[in-house]
Amino acid sequence: MTIITILGFLLVIIGLWGMLTRKNLIRMILGFSIMDTGIHLIIVSLGYIKGRTAPIFNSELSVAGAADKIVDPIPSALVLTAIVIGLAVTALMLVYAVQMHRQKGSLEISDYEELKW
Amino acid sequence: MVNPIYILVIALFTAFLLPVFDKMGRKYSLGLFFISLAAIFDITLQLAWQSYNGVLKANIFTAGSIPPFSINLRIGGIETFLITTINFGALLAAIYLIPKFNEQKVYAMMLFLTLIAGVNGLILTRDIFNVFVWLEITSISLYALIGIRQNHKSLEAGFKYIIASGLASAFLLLGIIFVYRLTGNLNIDMIAASNTLLVTKGGLTALFLIVIAFLIELKPFPANGWALDVYQAAEPGVSAMVASIVAAGFLYVFYKLIPLLPIYWFDILILMGMLTFVFSNITALKQKNAQRLLGYSSIAQMGLLVAVLLIIKRFPLHNDLPYNLIYIAGALFLNHFLAKAGLFWLAGIIKKDKISDWSLKGNPTLVIIFAFFVFALVGLPPFPGFWAKWVLINRLAQYNLIGWIIPIVIGSLLEATYLLRWFGSAVKQEAAEPVKLPLHKIIPASIAALALIMIYPAFANSLVNTRIIFQIPLLALAMMAILNFLPFRLQGILMIAALTFFGWYIFPLAEGIVKIFEFIFIGGGIVISIVSLNTNIKRQGYYEFLLMLILSLAFIPLAKTTLEFFLVWEYMTISSWLLVLRGKNGEKPALIYILFSLAAALMILTGFALSFAETGSTSLQYLRFLRHYALPVYILLAAGFLVKAAAVGLHIWLPGAYAEAEDEISPVFSGMMSKIALWGFIMLMGIMGTRALGIFEISNLLGWIGVITAFAGALMAVFQEDIKYLLAYSSMSQLGYMILSVAMLSHLGWTTALYMSVTHLFFKGMLFIAVAGLVSRVGTTKMYEMGGLIKKMPVTFISVLIAIIAVSGVPPLSGFGGKWLLYTALLEKGWFLQAGLSFFAGAIAFLYLFRLIHTIFLGQLKAKYREVKEASLWYLIPQVIFIGAIMAVSTFPNLILKPIMAAVDTQFTSSINWEGYKVITTLGYWNGNAVMIITMGVFMVPLIWLLSRVRMVQKVEQFNIVYAAERPERPETTHFAYNFFSHYQKAMGFLVNGQVSNFWNSVSEWFHSISSMVRHIYTGNSQTYALHIIIYIVIVYTLLGVN
Questions:
Q1: Would you tell me which of A8, B21, B292, B326 could form a disulfide with B28, CB atoms 3.0–4.6 Å apart?
Q2: Cβ of A94 under 8 Å from any chain B Cβ?
Q3: CATH number at residue A56
Q4: In 10 A of CB B987, how many CB atoms?
């Protein structure tokens, strides 16, 4: 558990808090985004090995013997995918918020409780 | 072989190619879209073919290396089955959505394809992170597809969905990364093999996060408010996909995760599934919105499937028979998949939000499709759900998981309640405006319905052993439906011919007591069906259901195994229910009838399952070897039969069902169908004898129930104003005597029961037919509206007269023999109190029987009936046949007593002797022949005397009377026949003041109150729903005991 991991969890909790308590759609979306970022941080931090370099082959890092010099490349690969997906979801949420505002002229989540029971 | 990866490639590649083609015109992009879907389905079919031939390669590697260094796909039998199903469903869903694709931008098609790619990917991949990616591809496409219907409701629902699903994916991602951290692996199979996860708390927590994320995606109760909103607000075509295709993907991922789970989690997770099944169904009871109702039902089915998947994996169900797993889960899944998608499509065709606005009357195509879907979901035969439930419950009993049977039974019954209520109201309601049937919508719905019926033999044959002839009732239904184009009367003649042929074929094969019942069902069926020939105006479904009912009845006694028995029992239930529903005011009675019948059926099913659990055999004869479960099995079966017999307390379905069925059908119910309960008891007691319940013998108890039913039925019949209700209660009473007789478990008792059941067919069939003829002329069933019809309808009068003499048990007619046998048997057995009570009940019967003659045929003729004529010949022929039968058996009781006694001889040693026409018991003798001659002599003497004085009679015309110039507010109350027995009502009416209906009403009220209480947790607030999810996760985490 590095400080980054803990920071990541902190962000997740802050984001969750935002999603659950903020009444404004945009703020809820921000909450989601913060939570997502927190998770990304956690992923990256778990793959990090102290004193090693990024898993990118270039003039500094040759393929031979790279395994001892780089951090775990899998989490880095995973986090890229997760970031892209997170971006897509956030964008879609914002589109929703815009459309909802167009339909009802409100961004308050409590104005969207028509469907129930 | 084809590489399944091409499915994903084609879907994704085409999706991004579509905008290019769209530039050329929508025709081209739509064409390409369908070509790609067809190509995907073609690949799936090839895979299925390879799988069928056993040449399928299971693992597909990617990126030129093997796991864990690359992602691999797996395509085994289950995967093939699933992708075949979903890609078939996708094709149908796409056809349904064609107009939407045309009016929307090209994105709709792109999203559809990415969604399909996502679900296929979810099913194929074995890499846990890849699962996350496909999940997100599916979800994002779905969010956007929901939003495509740009109204505020679907936007609201879509937003809630994103929040909920976003939370779930966040937990999933966390779980995945920690699993990777702890195992260094992302391949599901390798993680499962290494088992390193289960040893640490962190590993378990990571695993929990993954599992709970998919559980949330499967919409567990109560953390599922967002899903309900989606089902309700999305375009029906999209909701259909959520309920079928997408659910399939999520469910299969959950299944893939099961091998990772520690054993001690299973029970809690099964419980979560079962809770979802029961509570979603309870909550649905109060639902008025069609799509939301379907949403509740979908969620419930998913809950059941989750539980079943876990049960299958937890217990050795999948070991002993390899196809068991695919059998139960696959059948339940396919059943749900086709029926639920179809129902959503149907909702899109009807376009009515409120279920009470659904009106399908006069639209047979829609009614049939609707019926297929609803029946499949309720688990009625022959649909796959029926076989799945049968095997599931049998297996649960076998593996000593009886506790899980209870939620399944309760949930199924609740689901049946709202679905069949909906069906009943929809088919009874006349459409205000004709429903449009656009081809693109009706084609997928019909194909789904057809598929449901076409696949059933695959499930019916793969595990269970039923003789093929037990499908004859269903085939008969299909045959009659095909012949529907013929003139109605010709259909009737063909039906009677078919019955006659069937009887000629089956009768020689039947033996002993079975033969008696075949005589009642087939003989009675032929005679009573003649009545139906009175009209040539088409009635949809009439002969179909009637023939199915009669044949089902005929097959029940022939059943050798529990499944055969249960299968035709259910066929009987369905066909008779639909016949009640056909009645003019049949909606409510039909619902009550089907619910009681289904409850009875489920009790019988559970009883059979317990028997299977102990003896390991489905043979009915094996019931006799029961030790451990003997008592519960006996009680369950007896309770089921008591419901069917409408024993007191369980009788409230009977009056409505008998009386509100069409007039031509009531004699079938009363004369024939009621006897099936008797057969049930004869079978049960013939095999199992009696059992002791504490200090009581159950047969004693049944005897008391029988006699009290006889008494209560008679008393209630006395206070009826409606002639059909009167006869219905009278049937209940007569059945009571028969149960009493069977319960004696003696030669004389059984002889009595069988004798009564044959003669009851004669006189009650006759009475109901007479009433049908009567009603066809006077147009009312209220007795006080009749009167003085003796001269208008003399033949009907005579048959009613003969019937009531026969019912009441006075000499010389057959009823006397029945009563004589009954009292003799009771005294021989030493049941004196029962004898007293049945004697009292018999006396009460005189009251209502007298009323039939007095109120209908005697007294003043109403002015409006001056022109009434005798009922048509079609009513009179069967009556005359029955009169002949009654006369014959009254004069020569040997005609039926001899075969009955011969049949009973196989069960008990006889205490009866014969001396010519004399039946001799230890208590006395009865000579039917002599009784007839003497009574006739006694009758003839005054008759001749009266005839000789006929000229001295002065006729009093109707208006030869003084009126007191008053005009009452409710004229019928002044009729002498109204409230005829009010004085008796004062004395004994409190006994039958509706306590029982009040009880059942409050049962229904309770369930509806719970429903309305529970559904208030769905507040509609997105954040509340998110909170539900968080709390749910915490609770499940605690229950699983991870810490």
A1: B21
A2: no
A3: 1.10.287.3510
A4: 10
